[in-house]
Design goal:
4-stranded antiparallel sheet; alpha/beta; 7-stranded mixed sheet; globular; binds pyridoxal-5'-phosphate; 13 helices; 15 strands
């Protein structure tokens, strides 16, 4: 007897809700990973990923792993033992990268900010002058709900011959981002946030400057699975020949292609704007319920709203009640913010009025507060026009 899987409205830090269209695509009967029809689907998917990531990089592919695997792949291919790497740390995922970099034998130069704040550009670029090989930042810090601005980083990296490396796991498809325009040399993401696909693939892209560094290596890197040259032998559309590297998670790729089609049908500017509006509307409702956002205005990550619960409220008890009585998932604080915040996802189909109304109603009930004012604030947030992104 297997335990039933309950229905959940996923409004936490990820995974996000998966639309019917994607679920149906995932259930497409499996074909072989070298079937010509599958190879065509791979090419289509890589091209759609380029569009969503805002890049023309030929080395753009979904890695067969979650976002953390994308981070390991970035480190394995683009960081050599002994490299000095400047690493922005203002939350759990910057910490995680600092750890991955030091395991690779890099000399990690940490540039930190308080959890809940962005890091000043000037502080990030200053250490590049002392022979840094790369600068890494988390664009969307899911542990704090902060968006790290990318402006000014690429110029400084180029001036010092360093690579600009970015984690865009939570921002991709939900917050203004165009990797080529931002001068990003390599980036990784995940499927379970604003792309509304289940977890299991890591969109990954590497530009020419970073590929040139990889080509200068005199021996292959230590990771076989994440060897980008081997991976491109399977993914590259060059002469059409595909070398088996690993058995691709075929059905996940069916799902990702559909999820990317949904993003592109909406169009990126419209989608970014929808996330911004949904964030603002939900924040207005949550303020009516006594919550306060951790990130100051101007530093917020639209797809992830981290809020301090009202004074004196048992945050874990309310989260449990939301899940058990209303079928709604929101996330607790992570790392040093454990117990201090709720993290609410505003991701893809979760960035809509209807699921947010469900959350606001349920939260008001669990907090013992009337729902009228918060619902009115939510409605007003959706009614107010905002300037174009
Ligand atoms: C910003 C960020 N980076 C990396 C990761 C790791 O991704 P995964 O959990 O898919 O391995 C996450 C996951 O939440 C994330 O939010």
């Amino acid at each position: 007897m297997s335990a039933p899987v309950p229905a959940r409205l996923l409004l936490g830090a990820g995974p996000s809700p998966v639309p019917e269209r994607v679920l149906r695509a995932l259930a497409t009967p499996t074909i072989g990973h070298l079937d010509p029809a599958f190879v065509t689907l791979m090419d289509e998917t890589a091209q759609m990923l380029r569009e969503v990531m805002g890049t023309a990089n030929r080395a753009t592919l979904p890695l067969s792993c979650t976002g953390s695997g994308g981070m390991d792949a970035m480190v394995a291919n683009l960081v050599d033992p002994g490299d000095r790497v400047v690493c922005g740390v203002h939350g759990l995922f910057g910490e995680r990268m600092a750890d991955a970099l030091s395991r690779q034998g890099a000399e990690v130069v940490r540039v930190e900010a308080e959890w809940g704040r962005a890091i000043e550009t000037e502080r990030l670029v200053r250490p590049l002058a002392s022979a840094a090989a790369a600068l890494f930042v988390v664009h969307g810090e899911t542990s704090t709900g902060v968006c790290q601005p990318l402006e000014g980083l690429a110029e400084a990296c180029r001036a010092h011959d360093a690579l600009l490396l970015v984690d865009c796991v939570t921002s991709l498809g939900g917050q203004l981002l165009a990797l080529d325009q931002d001068g990003v040399d390599a980036a990784f993401s995940g499927t379970q946030k604003c792309l509304n696909c289940p977890p299991g693939l890591a969109p990954f892209t590497v530009g020419e400057r970073a590929l040139a560094k990889l080509a200068r290596r005199d021996r292959p890197g230590r990771s076989w699975y994440f060897d980008l040259n081997l991976l491109l032998g399977y993914w590259s559309s060059g002469d059409g020949a595909r070398a088996y590297h690993h058995t691709a998670p075929i059905n996940m790729l069916f799902g990702l292609r559909e999820a990317l089609a949904i993003v592109l049908e909406e169009g990126l500017p419209a989608r970014w704007e929808r996330h911004r509006r949904a964030h603002r509307a939900l924040l207005a409702a949550l303020r009516e319920l006594g919550c306060e956002r951790l990130a100051p205005e101007g530093e917020q990550l639209h797809p992830l709203l981290a809020v301090r619960p009202p004074e004196g409220v048992g945050e874990a008890a309310v989260r449990t009640a939301l899940r058990e009585r209303h079928g709604i998932e929101i996330s607790p604080g992570a790392g040093r913010l454990a117990g201090a915040v709720w993290r609410i996802g505003v991701m893809g189909v979760g960035a809509e009025r209807e699921p947010q109304e469900q959350l606001v109603r349920a939260l008001a009930q669990e907090l013992g507060r009337p729902a009228e004012d918060p619902l009115a604030a939510l409605a007003e947030g959706y009614a107010t026009a905002s300037p174009p992104v």
